[in-house]
Amino acid sequence: MADSNEMTINLVVLGRTQTGKSAAGNSLLGSSDFESHHSPTSVTTCCSLGRSCRISGIIRRNGCELALRVRVLDTPSYPHSGLSKEQVRDTVSSALAHHFREEGLHLALLVLRADLPLCPDESNHTIQFIQELLGPTWKDFTAVLLTHADKAEGAGFSEEAYLHSASSTLLSLLSSVHHKYIFLDNQKSIIKEERAIVLRKLLNFIRQNNYQVLLLKHSKE
């Protein structure tokens, strides 16, 4: 990278309406860049890019501390209440091709709600959509972000108990992405405290993928 004392990670959040994509993006950035609130319709209608300040105390390489910069691309949901699949795919593909050409490392975050079941049809459609966006190596560059973990915990599920009770559909999805997953608490005060832990986990996923860069052919087929 241009600055040997700095590392940049480029993230994209993908998922269904009201899973908490925008809120997750805000927590990763430590900001309120993305509009996020409960609504009877899909809130996000276009892609937007948020950038963090330099973050210290997160990563060390070769015995030296590196500053971290985080870029997050927020995307419209799929399915969307006001856009067709083709409109969402083309919008995200175009923004993604530009965003992931920037310097840095890459990871897509599939956002699912920990307090709602994942049905087979939903999983199949989501996987197909991500494959169309990221290409054949999508599994290497995708991690699952399970939001609303505070609600699952409130129902008596620890992370271990949750995974033990999870549906075969969710377990199969987690297996397909090499068990790259993170539970995210949606209580704002806790999210702020756990941000460094989450970022370290994301960096570990990127390290497991040998710091590879995702190369996208074109914004559209």
UniProtKB/TrEMBL annotation:
GO terms for molecular function: GTP binding. The keyword Nucleotide-binding applies. PROSITE patterns: G_AIG1 (PS51720). The keyword GTP-binding applies. It comes from the Eukaryota. Residues 6-221 form the AIG1-type G domain. Keywords: GTP-binding, Nucleotide-binding. Belongs to the TRAFAC class TrmE-Era-EngA-EngB-Septin-like GTPase superfamily. AIG1/Toc34/Toc159-like paraseptin GTPase family. IAN subfamily. This is GTPase IMAP family member GIMD1. It comes from Mesembrinibis cayennensis.
